[in-house]
Amino acid sequence: MSDQPQPNPERYLPQPYQPQPYQQPPFPPAGQAPYPPAGQVPYPPSYQYPHLPQPYPQPTVIVMPKSRLLTAVLASFFGHLGVHNFYLGYTGTAVAQLVLGIVGWLTSFIIVGFFILVPLWIWVIVELILFLVAKEGRYSRSANGVPLN
Questions:
Q1: Fewer CB under 10 Å: which end of the chain, C or N?
Q2: For residue range 13-25, what is the model confidence (pLDDT) as tens digits?
Q3: How far is CA 109 from the centre of its chain?
Q4: Residue 102, in any domain of the structure
Q5: Where, by residue number, does the polypeptide cross the bilayer (predicted)?
Q6: φ and ψ of 145, to 5 deg
């Protein structure tokens, strides 16, 4: 025979599973807290994820002021539908006026709608006057804080 080593058939059999012993994570040196204090980051943000692209500066957004006159015209003709508030960005108020206007007009044939429409018209007339004369506050600015011109 030859001088070559004979293959060991047990070498190719699956080995039984042997769990690894549990290892504690390394503790910090004595006197040092295991975690950074609340609100502090252990590393500067640029070192936390160096493989990810770093954030770019935010672009400057120029917002054109809304027209006080156009707001008044929209409130005059379409105020019961809240169009003037949609124009200025006050969507919550606009949706409320839109829903009240639609429900008021749909129920006006049974007289109930007039009890909804009359307060809505008063609300719109008060808003119209405030949009025309207000120098500060909600009625002098759009929803994003830009003064009306």
A1: N
A2: 666 666 666 666 5
A3: 41
A4: yes
A5: 69-90, 102-133
A6: 90, 5
